[in-house]
Structure formats: C-alpha cells, structure tokens
Design a protein that fits this description.
By secondary structure, the chain is of the alpha/beta class. The protein contains 3 helices and 12 strands, in the order βααββββββββββαβ. It is globular, with a radius of gyration of 16 Å.
Length: about 160
C-alpha cells in the first residue's frame, strides 16, 4: 500500500492513522529520512494490499448522505448514511479500510470498520433514527444490517473516497 503524504502530515500521524508501528513504516521505506517528509511523497505502508488490486471501492457523498459500493467501477449497492455534524465534520479525502471489528458495542452498532484516519470509521448504530442526518462526530453511520452486509463484501484495503 502506498500513502501519498498530505500537507501537514507527519510520519508519526501516518503511523497512527494506519495503526502501524512507526518502526515498521521506517523499515519499509529505507530511502526516506523519517525526520523530513513532504507533501506528495510516497510512503509504503506495510501490511496492506495495494487498493488497485481490490475490485471494490466505496464512494461516500456527505451532502447526499449516501454510500455507494462499486465493483470494477460499476454501482453494486447504495446505502443511506448519517454523517458528521457541525464542528465534527466527516473528513473529506481518500482512505482505506484498515480493520473490521464485529460487535464493538454502544453507539457503534454491530460492526466497526476503521478508516486510515485515526478515530474515524464506518459503523452501525444503536440509533437507527439518526440515518440520513448530520449527527455523528465525523464517522459514517449505517443501519446495522447494511454495515454488516458491506463488511461481508469488502476486504481490508478497500478504497474509501469521501467527498462533499
């Protein structure tokens, strides 16, 4: 998996976002200076497949509050979602799913899928009436049955694009 450094990112933050030890990232990138990274630089993140080898892609529209599942560029399924509220917006950008945790409990419903941005994920909910609204702390909420279905289809490493 190749991560392209964004403005303001540090190697430490990148390691936290991917839940990968800093030493593993440094070892996977022997030619980089870990103290000097720059926007646009490519960093190998060990342990994740190249997203281009995965036929699935997730497209999230914050404004329309829809999550689309595509396979080889063809729409397979579309789901209603809840997104972040004012002061806790859903982060725009390109990420990957880095892990899955069934039954995380509480407000996360019956499934949690972490994104490659620390503290953010796609998850179920214990409040189905929130779907379709801007009410979360930035995560993408789905009906439990929908997130379970999605998690059963997409593998770790699946690209997630979040846009307005």
């Amino acid at each position: 998996m190749i991560h392209t450094v964004k403005p303001g990112e540090t190697l430490t933050q990148i390691s936290k976002d991917y839940r990968t030890q800093l030493s593993a990232i440094i070892n996977a990138n022997p030619v980089i200076n870990p103290n000097v990274i720059y926007p646009g630089q490519s960093i190998v993140i060990p342990g994740f497949p190249d997203p281009d080898t995965i036929p699935f892609r997730i497209d999230v529209s914050v404004e329309s509050r829809q999550l689309k599942l595509l396979k080889d560029g063809v729409l397979q399924k579309q789901y209603p979602i809840a997104v972040g509220r004012i002061l806790h917006g859903t982060p725009l950008g390109d990420y990957i799913i880095i892990n899955k945790a069934p039954n995380p409990g509480g407000p996360y419903g019956t499934m949690w899928m972490s994104l490659s941005k620390q503290h953010y994920g796609i998850h179920g909910t214990n409040d189905p009436s929130s779907i379709g609204k801007a009410v979360s702390r930035g995560c993408i909420r789905m009906y439990n049955r929908d997130v379970e279905e999605l998690a059963s289809i997409v593998p770790i490493g699946t690209s997630v694009s979040i846009h307005p």
